[in-house]
Automatic annotation (TrEMBL):
Name of the protein described by the UniProt record: Acireductone dioxygenase
Region feature (Disordered): 1-20
UniProt binding sites for Fe(2+): H87, H89, E93, H133
Protein task: Catalyzes 2 different reactions between oxygen and the acireductone 1,2-dihydroxy-3-keto-5-methylthiopentene (DHK-MTPene) depending upon the metal bound in the active site. Fe-containing acireductone dioxygenase (Fe-ARD) produces formate and 2-keto-4-methylthiobutyrate (KMTB), the alpha-ketoacid precursor of methionine in the methionine recycle pathway. Ni-containing acireductone dioxygenase (Ni-ARD) produces methylthiopropionate, carbon monoxide and formate, and does not lie on the methionine recycle pathway.
EC numbers: 1.13.11.54, 1.13.11.53
Database matches in HAMAP family: Salvage_MtnD_euk
Similarity remark: Belongs to the acireductone dioxygenase (ARD) family.
Organism: Phlebiopsis gigantea (strain 11061_1 CR5-6) (White-rot fungus)
Cofactor dependence: Fe(2+); Ni(2+)
Keywords of the record: Amino-acid biosynthesis, Cytoplasm, Dioxygenase, Iron, Metal-binding, Methionine biosynthesis, Nickel, Nucleus, Oxidoreductase
CDD domains: cupin_ARD
Residue runs in coiled coils: none
High-level lineage: Eukaryota, Fungi, Dikarya, Basidiomycota, Agaricomycotina
Domain of life the protein comes from: Eukaryota
Length: 186
């Protein structure tokens, strides 16, 4: 994985948008974002490593999803628009890349700048509940991800706005990782 500040230039979300300003893992950790490099190997040691992380973090369920123009067909553009819109979840978002590559962007506190994480096969990323983020495929337009869940598999997005800013989960995130005051986008 490579993390850097998003350049905010015009262009497709799937372009690199590389500002040239790198972000280290300690900055991500300070935001509550966790990362592991678990290379996929033919012997299956990666599966044991994923199971160890799952036990330590009490993830009980998992599934595998593939996102590409081919797998999503007519739904591709609407699906990409849905996950590109800035949102948060009441639960952690845990993703392990099994193949392909994609971008996870998350808001840094207190600057509200976008930090982009470019993930590839073997990258495990955990976004904390309450962090504003978005997702898109890179120019390869294909990724296969294992999703891990603490309970039953679900994906409920709360899109950024006054109501979500005031939600208990967002406030818990701000108290844990940033300013307890709500940050809003103008």
């Amino acid at each position: 994985m490579r993390a850097y500040y998003y350049d905010n230039e015009a262009g497709s979300p799937g372009q690199l948008h590389d500002s040239g300003r790198e972000v280290n893992t300690s900055t991500l950790n300070a935001m509550g974002v966790l990362y592991w490099s678990i290379p996929i190997d033919a012997e299956g040691r990666w599966q044991e490593a994923i199971e160890t992380v799952a036990r330590e973090r009490t993830y009980k369920n998992k599934d595998v999803i593939e996102s590409s123009r081919m797998t999503l067909g007519e739904k591709y553009d609407s699906a990409m628009a849905m996950v590109w819109k800035e949102h948060m979840h009441d639960d952690e978002e845990i993703r392990y890349a099994l193949g392909g590559s994609a971008f996870f962007d998350m808001r840094e506190l207190p600057t509200d700048q976008w930090i982009r994480c470019h993930v590839h096969a073997g990258d495990l990323l955990v976004l904390p509940a309450g962090i504003y983020h978005r997702f898109t495929l890179d120019s390869n337009e294909s990724v296969k991800m294992m999703r891990l869940f603490k309970d039953e598999p679900k994906w409920v997005a709360h899109y950024r706005g006054a109501e979500t800013d005031a939600s208990p989960r967002r406030q818990e995130y701000l108290e844990a990782f940033g300013s307890p005051q709500t940050i809003t986008v103008a």
